Amino acid sequence: MTYAAIYHAPVTARIGRIREGVAATEAKDWLDLPDLGRNATLKALDLAVATFNRKVKERANLSPAESERVLGLARLVGQVEAMVRDAGGPADFDARAWLSRWLQEPLPALGHARPLDFLNTMEGQRLVSDTLAKAVSGAYA
């Protein structure tokens, strides 16, 4: 499933994926963000690196709680892809790389905290998503 497909999927479809558990092998690629790497991304999502690597090796699914946080991050990448496409940005724009850098920058809109520090909860991911949307609209310009 692509980032765009995750972002545009109906909520009920994402809930279904969460309940069944995302395959760790599929999540592995989603979590390997440039400038962050998989281990730092796992830590930001509050997922144990050793447990994740074991599930990849065993070709197991993530738990629903783990799947929810992983899908939430993948949805953020899809959100950036959609924002750039809707703004007429370049077709070869690397949303993963851009988001990876943006997540690490302290933002005044977040009390000078990094968006990365909010990824371990769904409320935090919603805050990050809203902050992205407001930045595009100019609310934080």
Automatic annotation (TrEMBL):
Q: Name one Pfam family in it.
A: Xre-like-HTH
Q: Name one GO molecular function term.
A: DNA binding
* InterPro entries, per the entry: Antitox_Xre, Xre-like_HTH, Xre/MbcA/ParS-like_toxin-bd
Antitoxin Xre/MbcA/ParS-like toxin-binding domain: which residues? 94-133
Q: Where is the Antitoxin Xre-like helix-turn-helix domain?
A: 14-75
**Signal sequence region:** none
Judging by the UniProt lineage, the source's domain of life is Bacteria
Q: Which NCBIfam families match?
A: TAS_TIGR02293
Q: What is this protein called?
A: Putative toxin-antitoxin system antitoxin component (TIGR02293 family)
Organism whose genome encodes this protein: Roseococcus suduntuyensis
